[in-house]
Hints:
By secondary structure, chain A is α+β, with helices and mostly antiparallel strands. Chain A has three helices and six strands, in the order αββααββββ. Chains A and B meet through β3 of A and α2 of B.
Amino acid sequence: MEKIDIIDQLPYTEPFLFVDELMEVGENGAVGAYTFSGDSDFYKGHFKNHPVTPGVILTECCAQIGVVCLGIYLLQNEVDFTQKTIQIGMSSTQMEFLFPVLPNEKVTVTSEKVYFRFNKLKCKVKMHNSKGLLVCKGEISGMFKSNANA
Amino acid sequence: MNHEIKYNKLKDIVKVYLPEDVSVDAITLESNFISELNINSANLVDIVLDVEDEFDIMLENADMDKMQTVQDALGIIDAKLEAK
């Protein structure tokens, strides 16, 4: 499966899609990038007169690139995506936030598979900004389920 | 390894994943992991992985599907140990 097809399979859309490109994906991990648009609604409230990307959004970006894109890649041999859609659920996260990410910053997410067993994918994730600074890191797990198209 | 030892080892694994409102005393042979012990499917995977490490066995998807109660888990552990 091509990287662009993996992004097409993602079950997200605007304003909650946090993947622009997938640079690498393989058995053991994925690398992708996203630029946080300064127009996003959440900057109006987080914080008052001082926009900073919320940690939950950074976590979501790490999950979409690092866990969900990787999970779709890993499932491609088992699931026929022309016949089935994927259902996912985040089951646990443990994150550390080291530096703020400001509006219009581009980040790169790198994930490393810890295990993928019984439809649960657990990954170590790291997010770097365009200067190469590690802005957050942690572990994210998600459950995958495929359903026949209605 | 006798039955009692296996049961206690399994209980030690399961108790780590119990939600705060379920006590260790609630674990019996008949306990259903999901409907009675309130363990979610993601944590049930972690229990299986811990069981694999503890007993040095490997479970398959079919085993996971059969593993509804504590008794089911012990049965699977016995079968895997016997097949070793």
